[in-house]
Amino acid sequence: MLYRLLLSVVLALSGVPLLDLRAQHAVVGDAVAEAVAGVVESQSFILGLVVEEFEAEIASLLNVRHAIGCASGTDALLLPLKALDPKPGDEVILPAFTFFATAGAVWNAGFRPVFCDVDPVTFNVTRETLEVRWTKWTRAVIPVHLFGQMAPMEEIGALARERGAFVLEDAAQALGARQRTAEGGEAAAGSVGDAGAFSFFPTKNLGGYGDGGLMTTNDDGLADALRKLRVHGGRQMYDHELVGTNSRLDALQAAVLRAKLPHLPAWTEARRKNACLYHGALAEVEGITLPETLPVNLHVYNQYTVRAEDRDRLRTHLQDRGIGSGVYYPVPLHLQPCFASLGQGEGDLPVSEEASREVLSLPVFPELGEARIEIVTDAVREFYGTR
Predict the structure, then answer these.
(1) Per the omega criterion (within 30 degrees of 0), is the bond before 328 cis?
(2) What pTM did the predictor assign?
(3) Which of 215, 246, 261 is the last residue of a domain?
(4) What's the structural domain count of the chain?
């Protein structure tokens, strides 16, 4: 009891960050250093064997035919869209409540972004929210598996098949997330749509030591096109079948990710345990709406995101006590100035707009531990008990 009290005091004085990658590095640092040294010794830095091995391991993990590394999660969204060869007027439907890269990729690939609203409980798109925005110009849809929980892929896939649209899963926050199928099996995020996109930004559940991304597909023809697009549009130097770009996953980043990958299941379970602790401690707090997981989903909690009354004041309250938090995302995409020409404005997507005013992400990284979760939840309860 005395040790726990002293530990709580020490942790309270040192604060609770939103994310602490140093704790992870203390566990994997030696293995990462050895893997990086191997690449340096080989002097093979661009694609090569270590990238191929990492791609094979991810393909096996997700049960997909092809996993194709690229330079970033943004490019993992961009290149499959470019492979569709958009024509003037072609549209892609995507949620307004997500990170900018999803919309930026649509625009930069040559499509017109069409923003839809999201489910108020999961923050994900549904068949219904997509159908509202569907037109004869709809060429593709992008369900974003936000915060680590998969969107309802069977109903989205059925809609897309009925109307001949391409499905690109934005799984940047959802590596390892799974969903039970109608047949009783399980499908991994990134394995259900026509293609999937992953990010290995350092803050992700599996993060590199810089930028990195990966695309998945079961379509052999699409996989061939993606491998060309990431290397200036060709398989061989100076032979350009497509107009591609430079989007190769560095061997150094692949080495880092391979060293970390065996730890991902334990890290996922730690995040899920932390989420359960938050659920138990905050369930009765009036003013907080806790995240819910669909019964068919395994949530991997890239973020633990609540809805909070007086969100901004709560965030200041936490900050004053040395507790980190995040707002993902403060402005929905249809209200971003760069998309004003698309014609959507305030009031058009009310669920996304309300979410942007209420969401707050609390620390959930694997090494967080019960004592620091208690510090966070005590501070939240203090705020709602005294405001």
Answers:
(1) no
(2) 0.94
(3) 261
(4) 2
